[in-house]
Amino acid sequence: MVKICCIGAGYVGGPTMAVIALKCPAIEVAVVDISVSRITAWNSDQLPIYEPGLDAVVKQCRGKNLFFSTDVEKHVSEADIVFVSVNTPTKTSGLGAGKAADLTYWESAARMIADVSKSDKIVVEESTVPVKTAEAIEKILTHNSKGIKFQILSNPEFLAEGTAIQDLFSPDRVLIGGRETPEGEKAIQALKAVYANWVPEDRILTTNLWSAELSKLAANAFLAQRISSVNAMSALCEATGANITEVSYAVGKDSRIGPKFLNASVGFGGSCFQKDILNLVYICECNGLPEVAEYWKQVIKINDYQKNRFVNRVVSSMFNTVSNKKIAVLGSAFKKDTGDTRETPAIDVCKGLLGGKARLSIYDPQVTEDQIQRDLVMNKFDWDHPLHLQPMSPTTVKRVSVVWDAYEATKGAHGVCILTEWDEFKNLDYKKIYDNMQKPAFIFDGRNIADMDKLREIGFIVYSIGKPLDGWLKDMPAVA
């Protein structure tokens, strides 16, 4: 029986290995992590991450050919193929701080693999890594191999949180990069055979190592660029009276462009977009391409601008002060159908409002109070270190309460900020919400999910990103 071991039981490793176990009953799959609490959760009824469809997949395979364990060395030593899905946070100090990826956890995993291996292995990069990481890992493994042969493959994931299981069941493509040698080709074919259990062969692409690594960064940069482009247009729409929804629809009808990733919002989030673009910027700078680096920096700048613009709109609309006003925040996750808050725009918006001394009441159906409080006190990039290495959060951030009901969050509030596009927020009883708010009552829709006309009929003053401004907002312009 082929044995696969995945180091790292997070958002990538857990779902990917669960689907491999489901689709390949003849393969034994072990997911290992040093975090006891995380592995305990994977073995319980309450999985550590929320992803539609994941629960059913895990429960179907767990204990049969899918195992979650803290016995890292045992499972690594027994495996034929070792996936490495550990954190690659952005460096916060030293050379490349604020841009380069920190490969501490990757290097440590590689040294451990070399240390415990007693047979030849295929080592697969699954976490997002900078170009040429495979070369560095290869050197560590080779110099510590004790005669054991390792082949390094790059197999970047292209999952979208919220649809990860569907993406795994029916991927646009599976990308496998390896060395252009007989041994490298053999390793590529071995991994290809795993995916071929359910993925059509024409969707399994094989490249050299560097192309596979760079393709992941490029794909995320292109997607983020689309979001920043439409968000830049949303600011122009507000200034001119155009409607970003109509503009996006018209643009997306061009078959060369297409409609995806053209929804204006308060900004993009998630674990990959900003981190990967910063990584791309660093690689360009290191390779003497400052103009290319500057081009990609603008994608991040527009994203930060959009979040700042939203906060400024909230403050300026409410008589230029939010001091001691209760603001309800609906949504903390970076997108619907996930509990992930990494780089969510909600963090920057909340910090901006807290800077103006607002009182926040936050509700999200999938994010815990502890996570929300941690997010508001963590420094940038702290979130991407393993949980036990993150700073502990205080019990509460002053002026922030976390509640488990949208109506409780909005009771007595001066304004409501919609920051995640959860379906339930579209169907709230906004008349009930309006009746229990301070007047004038404001709604700031950062996801363009609410019916502006209906809300205005109820009596709300409404701001929706990229939509024509009502008279009130025109009289109180936001300066970003």
TrEMBL record:
UniProt-annotated catalytic positions: C272
InterPro entries: 6-PGluconate_DH-like_C_sf, NAD(P)-bd_dom_sf, UDP-Glc/GDP-Man, UDP-Glc/GDP-Man_DH_C, UDP-Glc/GDP-Man_DH_C_sf, UDP-Glc/GDP-Man_DH_dimer, UDP-Glc/GDP-Man_DH_N, UDPglc_DH_euk
Gene3D superfamilies: Cytochrome c1, transmembrane anchor, C-terminal, NAD(P)-binding Rossmann-like Domain
Pathway given in the UniProt record: Nucleotide-sugar biosynthesis; UDP-alpha-D-glucuronate biosynthesis; UDP-alpha-D-glucuronate from UDP-alpha-D-glucose: step 1/1
Ranges for domain UDP-glucose/GDP-mannose dehydrogenase C-terminal: 328-452
Principal EC category: oxidoreductase
Keyword entries, A-Z: NAD, Oxidoreductase
Record EC number: 1.1.1.22
Pfam families: UDPG_MGDP_dh, UDPG_MGDP_dh_C, UDPG_MGDP_dh_N
Catalyzed chemical reaction(s): UDP-alpha-D-glucose + 2 NAD(+) + H2O = UDP-alpha-D-glucuronate + 2 NADH + 3 H(+)
SUPFAM superfamilies: 6-phosphogluconate dehydrogenase C-terminal domain-like, NAD(P)-binding Rossmann-fold domains, UDP-glucose/GDP-mannose dehydrogenase C-terminal domain
Gene Ontology biological-process entries: glycosaminoglycan biosynthetic process; UDP-glucuronate biosynthetic process
Residues the record lists as binding NAD(+): 8-13, 33, 38, 86-90, 127-128, 161, 272-275, 342
GO molecular function, one term: NAD binding
Cellular component terms per the entry's GO annotation: nucleus
Family affiliation: Belongs to the UDP-glucose/GDP-mannose dehydrogenase family.
The protein, known as: UDP-glucose 6-dehydrogenase
Organism this protein belongs to: Boehmeria nivea
